Amino acid sequence: MTADGVFQFLAANADGSLYLQLAASTRYEFDTVEPNGSATTLQRRRYQVDVAPSGAATVQDQDADARGVVAVTLAMTAVAGPEVQQRQDALRAIAAQPVASFRQTSQCQLLDTVSPQRSFGTDVSAGFPRVRTRLPSFGRVRSLIIPVDFPEATGKDDPGILFTPLAKEVSDFYARQSYGRLAFDFEILPNWVRMPFNPSNYGFTAVNGSGDFTSYRNNIFAMIDKQVDFSQYDAVYILVPKDLPMSKMGYGPAITGPTFTLTGYIINGATGGADMYLSPGNEWRWMAHETGHAFGLVDEDLDHKTQTLGHWGIMAMNRSRNAIEHIGWDRYLMGWLPEEQVACLPMACLGSNGISVTLGPLVRQSLDTKAAMVPLSSTKILVMESRKNEGYDHIASNNEGVLVYTVDMTIGTLKGGYRTVRRPGSIDPAFEDAALRVGESVTVDGVTVTVTASSKDGDTVKVSLP
What we know:
Blueprint: E1 26-32, E2 42-43, E3 45-51, E4 57-59, E5 75-76, H1 82-95, E6 139-149, H2 159-177, E7 182-188, E8 193-194, H3 213-224, E9 235-239, E10 254-255, E11 259-261, E12 264-266, E13 269-271, H4 282-294, H5 328-334, E14 342-344, E15 355-359, E16 371-375, E17 380-387, E18 401-408, E19 418-420, E20 441-444, E21 447-455, E22 458-464
Parallel strand pairs: 6-7, 6-8, 6-9, 9-13, 14-16
Antiparallel strand pairs: 1-3, 2-5, 3-4, 10-13, 11-12, 15-22, 16-17, 17-18, 18-19, 20-21, 21-22
Helix pairs in contact: 2-4
Protein name: Peptidase M6-like domain-containing protein
Organism: Telluria aromaticivorans
């Protein structure tokens, strides 16, 4: 890549040599490119060249030999055996199953319309069915933590000591969110895996979304593919030292696309960045949020800039220390809320007298009805749930009540498809005062929700039409 940010393809001479005149005091990047027909066995690698004012050139993190020559290479791509290839082919078939193949069992199971034709490019969804290549939402999730460090950010802590509390918090959190239906089994590699590159080689900065995470992850997996049987894990987390500067790799996303390995594939997990250490105790919240994406859940805010759901769930604001329990719609989508605990109220069954539903606190593991839902159309649903100061919800007593919100199946991740309906007088910018209290009502698309009773054990709502 030239100094002005443009990539050029340059052919070598007949003897394999290549001569370039580079400007002094300039940084360049170049990729080694696989020969024609070799993309299945070889992967490109990116290198960074710094030209000093004197004209001397150095390749970052690569030492020259006695002649001043720096060797650069391609990466070997894992070549799977027949049985592994069958598993990879089966994954491709699962990823390609369209939304239309899902059979609804309730009028409240609204279908995803953002990505009706699915593929590996479909990573999350607000509607049914849940993305089929995502983590299982029941049983045990086998998970591996790979501690990686770099020449410019070395790991000084024992990985087991640093990451065991994080793993336990995530495991405890999801055990509670699933009402005991799900458990994580974490394994942590005992030592830091030193990378022969720095994050800056992949274009990472403090800007969210910067850099080439796909190549970064693929090269890490390729380096350890022969030492780790990835077929033994459902989720893989690449975690970094706590003193990695934000400027070097500010934000780490979920893993939701496939990397094929000698033993199968990796398609779920997360890649750590400096943001996981933004504040004390944020590590596990970051990981729980990214794991939510690995389950197929969307970001429930608007472009990470403004709130539409507010601080009412870890998928809307993972750095909140207030109400971070997963909302009822997400639990329904995951299967953690079965049909018998959801009061599905089609508009045809509503009238001016209304239907009363008593909601047990969403947070509690009980057999109570946890949510009431009204399909406002084939693509938009109204949800009501009782939120109390329990579990992972830290809510002031005067802010407890019935959270009312809508979910729009035509709106994708980070586009504000989840919207809280504020109670009268709600002014908090994070919507923390938005839940309805006794005697209060809101009307959404002609449906009126009124809270008629409340106690520590739940709330009663009347849902009616004019």
